[in-house]
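re: that chain from earlier
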Amino acid sequence: MNETAEKSDSSEAIGADGSLLIVEDDAPFLKRLARAMESRGFKVETAESVAEGVAKAKARPPKYAVVDLRLADGSGLDVIETIRSRRDDSQVIVLTGYGNIATAVTAVKLGAIDYLAKPADADEVYAALTRRSGEKVEPPENPMSADRVRWEHIQRVYEMCDRNVSETARRLNMHRRTLQRILAKRAPK
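^ sequence. v structure.
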């Protein structure tokens, strides 16, 4: 397939409005992803914080967005909420190294269409953004490890407690500092 045909296919998948907001605090990754998405036909804007992402979403709500869950100044869920409150047809995906079921459910309830764990490459991000509604994603080949199941349970209780560490520790019958250490780590594989 030649370059013109590829761009035509890309434009068709994206549609007339190719505005894309990428909110990510890892600057090198942000630059690489922005370049890759521009080469696929998106009109990319970037933000490196929740405040900057919310401001850009309010000024020009994008059709597409890729939002990191944990940013230096807060939760990417706030950016998703802002985008979805301003534009109903936006397609937002969450990209994070701290993935768990509870935050995935919260992100979907706020309007995200997909949830990708880092390290995700540009092809995975593009596929998630341009996936048609009703199109199914293949289930993973390997089941979750016991450590991952424990992590997911802790995260679910943490979200149920509105991210209150003390209340979560009480419900899990766990010392608060132990819980804080667990929450500060990345999810096990």
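The two ends are 37 Å apart (CA to CA).
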